[in-house]
Structures are given as structure tokens and as C-alpha cells.
Amino acid sequence: xILVGDDPASKVYVNNKKKACEYIGIKSFEYLLxxxxxxxxxxxxxxxxxxxxxxxxxxxxxxxxxxxxETVVINAxxxxxxxxxxxxxxxGKIMTGDYDFVPCTPAGVMELIKESGVDxxxxxxxxxxxxxxxxxxxxxLLLHKNGTVTICHSRTANLAEKTKNADVLVAxxxxxxxxxxxxxxxxxxxxxxxxxRVAPKKLVGDxxxxxxxxxxxxxxxxxxxxxxMTIAMLMKNTVKAAVKQNECE
Length: 249
Ligand code: L34
Hints:
about 250 residues, alpha/beta, five-stranded parallel β-sheet, two-stranded parallel ribbon, 9 strands, globular, binds ligand L34
């Protein structure tokens, strides 16, 4: 795991990942680099980790400081060690459905939906948010499970009309309390991907929990919902990477 700079939220996430590794017996190495680290230095480190046979998975925590090009960094990670599934080769595989690594947050959301007991096949699934990391791959995973998928975003006209249709609603916009109870179909499964810090110690999701829980059949909390599942899926991808790399030897 590589963390550049000292964003407090990123530190918490990386530390939670480290603890998960310890818990299940994955050896983890943390590279905590200063914010001034150059792109070249970061790429050199990634190169070294790419060719280190002891390393099965490489994760460079995002966001990176402004002077480093995230795309260049993501493209530098060997696809076989890209446990985030952010590399274009892995992103492409998610489109076709022939994938080794499923991106951690969308994969965690799929597990949560499955646990709710709802089968997405034939259902109206609405994803609010279109990021490369969550919204887009999320829509693909729902589609692979035969959901009828609508992707909404900040420019969507009549958003509430769309969200009210959703049997499965995934909120990943990054705006605190953006989805209110009156925008949710009664009995829907609501997954809240947002983690918004509204005060030093107060986290809220993209869904207004108090009004939404009265309408939804099932809803995930923030914290304690998608975040921990993201980490669990990272562990799964890492084990997968290790198994695959050892098969080839
Ligand atoms: N490269 N960058 C890369 N891979 C990732 O998969 C991520 N992501 C997102 C940010 N940047 C990344 C994460 O790891 C978000 N994310 C993440 C991971 C863990 C948690 C939240 C986001 C998490 O542990 N959440 C806890 C609470 C944490 C807190 O108290 O701040 C929760 O219960 O939701």
C-alpha cells in the first residue's frame, strides 16, 4: 500500500486495510511517502513492487497530490497486481464480464445487495454517480446480474422521478444527505456509498438515513456499511492475485 501525503481520511482507510491484512494473515507493507514525492519517485517504487515476487498486490491510495498524474500512476501498476482493478486492462475486462479483479467498492455493494435477499435480475437498478471508481463499474456489475440499470448524475433532469423507480438504489455522488426518503420507492434496497465528513468526527452518507430508513426495506449505514465491505473485497482480490501468480510459476 502506497500513501502519498497526509490526508487524514486516507490515513484512516489505509490503516483499516493494514488491520484487515493482519487479521486474515496477509503480509502488508506500507509506503508512507511525503506529499512532495515526485511522480518519478512514485513510478520507481511501483516498478520495484511490480517486479518483486514477494508482492502479490499493489494499491496506491487515491486521491494523490495535485502534481502527480493519477492516470499515469494507475497505468504503471502491473494489471496482475492491480487489486483495485483501476488499470485500463482490468477496467476493460469489467466491461466484457471476463474479469479477475472486481473493483472493491462496487464488489462490496454487490455483496450487500445479495445479503439483503434481493436478486437484481429484471429489477430497476439506479446508480446515482458516474465516477470511474464507483458509478461506472457499479452499473456494469448490476448489468452482468441482469438488472435494468439507469445511471444518474449531477446533470440528470428529474432525478427524484428516476430514483423513485429504483428497486435497488446505489448512491455514490459524494454530497451529504443528497437522497431523501421521499426520493425512494417504498420497499427498495438502498446502498449508501458516500462517506462525507461534515464535522471533525461526524461522517454522513449520500442518503439521509433518518427519512430513508422509514421507506426502504433495507439500507446500509455510514459508517459501518460500504466502507468495511470495500476492505473485505480488497482482501479477496489480494488472495486471488496471490493464487493466480503462484499458479503461473
Ligand atoms: N486506490 N484509493 C484506492 N483504492 C480504494 O479502494 C480507495 N477507496 C476510496 C478512497 N481511495 C481509494 C477506499 O479504500 C474509499 N475507500 C475507503 C476505504 C475504507 C473506508 C472508507 C473508504 C472505511 O474504513 N470506512 C469506515 C469508516 C472510516 C472512518 O472512520 O473514517 C466505515 O465504517 O465506513
